[in-house]
Fold these 2 entries.
Entry 1:
Amino acid sequence: MSYTALYRKFRPDNFDDVKGQDHIVTTLTNQIKANRIGHAYLFCGTRGTGKTTVAKILAKAVNCEHPVNGSPCNECAMCKAIQAGTAMNVIEIDAASNNGVEGKYKVYIIDEVHMLSTGAFNALLKTLEEPPSYVIFILATTEAHKIPITILSRCQRYDFHRISIDTIAARLSELLTAEGVEAEEKAVRYVAKKGDGSMRDALSLLDQCISFYLGQVLTYDKVLDVLGAVDTEVFSRLLRKVLSGDVTGSIHVLEDLITGGRELGQFVSDFTWYMRNLLLVKTSENPEEAIDVSSENLKLLKEESGMTDVETLMRYIRIFSDLSNQIRFASQKRVLVEIALIKLCRPAMETNLDSVLDRLRVLEKQMEERPVQQVIVRESEAGGAGEPGAAVTGTATVQQQKPQKAAPEDLQKIVAGWRAIVGQTTGLFKQSLQRAVPKYNGETGDPILYVEFQDFLGMNYVDNPEAKKELQDIIAARTGKSVEIHMLVANKHQHTNLAQITVDDALRENIHMDIVVEEDPDEES
């Protein structure tokens, strides 16, 4: 016998097996038990929610010789004939390929009824106006708005709901047990979620996964491989790269996805959905009720929702929603995705309101992480601008404790040429060093250079031997000295004795920095 797809093999044959449409099942069974059967029904709803299945069960139930609680018995000759498709008084018509209506059989099931031609609708309307007592019409459609109002007003309308993830997952688990297939609960729930409210779609996806890994346990990772989907951990990693403005890191994440065979259209859709969940977590008082994710993923979403604001998330969703429409028919999908990621990382590329707000967010974050300081050198009668201690900062309010020992001369030389040293580095490392502060141990006076990054981006280089070697090589080339370097992030380390490196008068001539010269008020008087 040839193989039968799961959605056909396990199609419900009585009302009790219909899942997720209890409001419709209860109404129809009550009508059958009370013999209050209408002459025309309209079943509306998205694909795979059970419209045609319920129509066939209803056709059997009204013709069954021994109905059981409003459901067909599936044992009598009439039930068996209808099930086999040989009954002459039940006709199923696909309106997508049939444009005429015949009126001599008892039950007509017209699928995709919105596809009927104008002439067919007129003929159907005439029959519905004066229906014979032995005729029942069951119309099914996914687009009820395309049906003439004159038809709608003569039918009992039933709207089929999207089936919940829990209901689909429970049904899938039941069928897997019947098929003797082992599967992880997480894998089953993911397939149920990808069904998007359609039991048939979920069953088709499950059938595909089982066939690919025939005879093996169906795991979450295997389902992701078959469906070309991406784990939420990857979305989390990508979002953090975007929030930090790391274009190179974002492109590398995309490269890994493409190398792993992930489908870009699916990735765009899933990442948009991920950001949508973040937005709901950010704005909802009870996010547990708003989104359907595991407690582990919900904890991660709550953490990431605190890293950004609502306006930024809405901008991200807008960009990827636009991308979702563009990528469908694009020949260079990767290029479009890369451009979208760059837009997320660089709000300055756009001029609309939400992009401007995102740019303000970045500036505010930078100001919070390291307040802007202005160096002012006062010219005095005795020593002029070069005297130690003449420099003051506009934002300094607390006197720092004076270090016990002066900085070693080698470190002073490095700081004297710090701007030139940083200028020889490259990429994001250079950007981080431009905001970093070179320090030393003021208690011991050891010749160890501590590079203190002022924002979280520096975490990428704390334990990065390549970055450390690059900086050491540049310093060695400029000073002829090899220096030990420790990299750390402000407020993230335990070193309490670090002090900024000041330069003696003998080395001050090597300093290159922008200063503001302020005249001494005593001189004017």
Entry 2:
Amino acid sequence: MSRLIAAIIFVLLLSVACTSQPSVATPISTATATDEAQPTTPAPAPTPTPSPAPSATPSPSVTPTPTPLTPTGIFESLSPAVVRIEADRGFGSGVLIEGNYILTNAHVVWPSAEVAIVFPDGAETTAPVAGVDLLVDLALVGPVETDVTPLSLADGEQLAVGSPLLLIGYPGDATRDPRPALTQTLVSRLHELESLDMTYLQVDTPIAGGQSGGIAVTMAGEVIGLTGHRVSDAGLGLVASAADVTPRLATMLAPPSGVARGGDPAQGDTQHTFEIEDNWSHRVFIVAAPVGTTITAEVNGDGDAVLIIQDALDIDSIVVDETYEGVEKGQLVTMTSGPHFVIVRQHNNWPATYTLTSEQTLIPYTDPDDGRTVAIGEVYQGRSDYPVDIDVFNLLLSKDETANIHATALLIDPYVLVESVALGVNSIVEDDSSGGGLFNWDAEMTYRAPNTGSFRVLITDSTGHSAGDYQLTVREPYPDAPTPIAPAPTMTPAPSPIGRVGRYESANFPFAIAYPAGYDSDSAHELCTTYDRCFVAPGNGAIIGILETELRKPDGTPPTLEELIVELEASSVERGLQALGQEEIVTQSGTPGVISAFEEPDSGTQIRVFTYFQEPNLMFRLMFFYISPGFEEVFDFMVSSFEVTQ
């Protein structure tokens, strides 16, 4: 696309014609002397010599100074081409460019197939999403039919720090009669994101909600960037350079892969039976459902399944994990129009068979990223298709071979884990934000292989709430690369259905269990004084207590598990708690135990107790206090992770 200056400057050239008057020629009289005397002749009276008439001084030509553009003039000239966009996830801005396409941010429109457009003059239309670039957060909508003049994009990367800019968009405008707004700002610095071939201008004004997809304009009226991101804590905004956006426009108009890249409608059915190999594996299905559809799903099998239904935006989302085996059933009424994902995972680390049924057609989804082999020297673009997606790659390494692994993205916060297939889950090492990047959330590590063989490289969104593309680079370590790391002796935080988890391993007993990494392990809460280890959720929403001890009855003989459970219920009822029941379970490591449930009638506090007894006399007990049912999955996951280490 040609880069044309969007503002027209009218220059009035004034000139004044100049003429010169000719000077008057004056004759000169001369007298000639001879040797002979001549009669004296009276000398004529001298003729006055007229003074020459002065020449006219030429008037200077007038070179007019161009009239400087004003913010008002620039706004009036460009704002008619800046539109408001309404999609499933809310609203944003966009700019009409060549071909009558509307350029905006991908996070404004994706994964919608069609969006609503409102021009400043009130004209409304709908238009398809023609293409997206989820790696650098760009999208094209249209083409649209309009008489509005499109704007051209210009290169502003040579602007000096301190240069003034104007931002035009729809910040915070959720009204029925939207109007574009004008904001003045300054260029603070340039960010060169070399890994993605993108430049961003940092400005001293945050990009407010609704401003994404708007334009940044110089005082000469040139559109030099697309507003799209903000660093809210620092009060800063980021503008994608139009010079780097322009080369990507044609690529975005290539045939799109859509949201559901690996779906095969011909395989759709209301019931599917399948096997899941381990706790990293999962099966995914797609439901094409308009807004207001009730999606029901039920999974039944011989393992401990987790059922998840969600869209790509995490607006529609439920997680069902109520039993340790048997049936998990969930229902969701859709609020977004995009495809919805039905995901089945399991807690157990051994193969299990499941049957999934639904009233809706379930289309099997094969993630193009899962199972792909990457090698040193390769750069790969993948996608986190839905918020809890975990992409699993294979990497072959020799013992002590090192590889630098780097993941960068704009729409997700990439989180990278590496696991030795031979050594299993205890060999996991991870990184969340060591690689820098535009928002300082790129993941990077230099991994040293502890053995020769196959390694899993896992990538997911660390928050569990976002979807989008990422770039995975596997390369030789470079100068100043992170120090090589190898598997730690204990498990580091890892993703799970409850978010990132850490591992508690007893120093005195052969017990270990996972716990939410964000819980406070050094809490001064009064309940924590009675336990060997205590974890408190943010806001005191849940309290977890761990008891570990050697037991003897008064006669010196060891108790049995049945006796411990009877004593627990009796003492709890004596304290005023209501007993709700018991359940014998087996954890994912094959360890048996008993879960007891109680309720405090006055406060509604729920109490779940997991008891494990190792003969002859060792007891592990997990006490979990909560009110909100949302914490039940935390308890279930912790119990499923319990293991005896010796």
